[in-house]
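Run folding on both entries below.
>entry_1
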Amino acid sequence: MLMLALLVALADDPQPGALKLYGDWAVACDNTHRCEMTSLYPPDGPSDADADYQATASLTRAAGPEGSFAVELYPANTVKGRVSVRVDDVPVASVPANAAGDTVTLAAADSARLAAAMANGKRLTLTDASGKLVARISLAGSSAALRHIDADQGRAGTVTAAVAKGARAASAVPGAPVLPRIAALRPSGAAAALPPALRASLEQQGGCNDWYEGTESRPETQLHALGGGKTLVLIPCGAGAYNYNSLAFILSGGKAVEAGFDLSSGEGEGNALVNAGWDKGVLSSYYKGRGVGDCGLGASYVWDGTRFRLIEMRMMDECRGSTNWLTVWRAEPVFR
């Protein structure tokens, strides 16, 4: 019990970071000052002439004096063999695409060189082994996004900054905060059955009846054992083209109450979730702004015996081609 109390004390209420937009780049930093930035397509979308050359890029930098860069590039079309990464036609790195030909991953040293070049560049391009242009990415706003990371991580004015460089030593950069630790119950036991009459009552309570009026059958309810004699109930409550709504309840002793959350994900109100899933003690949900999945909000939770606690939140406000939703909150679940 002492360990549980300590873990709870270490877990402050979630305070997710904010996503910022700079030109053709979005950037966000989480509660440990780990920062990510991702490129976006032009506001009006790629033109037909440019469609074959579109790609997105994502850059991550860890917090702390030794925080390194990591870059991944995602060409819209398959690319094979070695790829030359250039900024304003100046080679920065030469690396192989992955086996599927849809991702190019840079090592830390190459990522750092690319970040330095991006700070004053206008266009990032990828060419294949024959020299053919296979992808291009706008760098408009990338310098401002890198400056945002410098500020969030306390790098401004130090030799470690990407843009806001200064003479101060790396030791002046604050260390990375420790991830919050969340005490969570490990799922155990068997899920209880949900009596039809109770389901009908919960659907009425949640306003779900209108969605299924006139239909011969309704989607099955998900039932998952939480441990301690409690069961997570996910009741379908309507759907759109690519988002499926559920209401979360906790069933115990034949009675059900709305599931509590330490922070609403913004996908719905109260106990409403979108595209909910359950896997090994983690309750996940995500809302897609449109079918291609290039914008939306996602969250993951664990059950602490009383309520669901946020362990991750990712978001992308801009529907502009990037399927890399940026992380704005993280915590470490500790199952018992």
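>entry_2
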Amino acid sequence: MYQKILVPVDGSPTSNRAVQEAVKLAQLLGSQLELVHVYEDIVYLISKDYISYEELQRTVRSCGEKILTEAEMLVKEVGLEAETRIIQASKERVAQLLVAEAERWQADLIVIGTHGHTGFSRLLLGSVAEGLVRIAPIPVLLIRGQEH
């Protein structure tokens, strides 16, 4: 049914829950997993005399790689393997990049955590998960964060 499951990760507890749910599906169905982290190009309007853009980009990428490594450890804890991929977003929307990656990897399903923001906070923060649901040509499984 779902042979290839793509899981976007951002290091949040909700993202980790999505990884855990994807692992359950992979165990049940014998699916392959790909963990993907998208980091955005950081453009500062600050004088270049005070900040090194290249160093900042290296730091952001390094943080993304750590997020991927931590997510990969969740998969390995249960004896599974996962491919990993880090993608830099310049001017593209994250949801579009994730759909492009799903198409490239020929994923059958995307499992993503959603923070469940509503109202004004959703307007400010946007929603990658909502964007994916709207444009993905394959099924998207949304995993809600735990209630407090």
